[in-house]
Write the structure tokens for this entry.
Amino acid sequence: MLRLEIAALYAGVNILILLVLAVLVVAGRRKHKITLGDGGNADFNRAVRAHANAAEYIPAGLVGIVVLALMEPASPLWLLHAAGISLTVGRILHGAGLHAGTLNFGRMFGMILTWVSYLLIGGGLIAAGLAQQL
């Protein structure tokens, strides 16, 4: 599998995660008859926050993964997979955890995995950028 194919795999899965979360928001709007805002409904607010939170974290993560993929040979394949898997699993766990309720394993571990992916991506990009200069 080539580097950009790896990036495409994680981009595709994470875009589908965003789609599922968006569909859950639309379904919640229909179920609770809410046309604007969250209508003060706690269940619906969690669906909105799950989508919004994913929309905040996924784009930057995917941009980082794509740039890492382009930094051949300075970024190893294991780094692309580690960043992609931690971002993807983190976003799935966090979204499911938010839908389930308040602070729980899914939310906490999902956020930790997302931050791990950001650490891997950020560190990898810095290392790759410096390696190109030496």
User: Anything to note?
Assistant: The chain is about 85% helix and 0% strand. Residues 3-133 form a domain with the Four Helix Bundle (Hemerythrin (Met), subunit A) fold (CATH 1.20.120.550). Residues 3-32 form the longest helix (30 residues). The chain has one domain: 3-133.
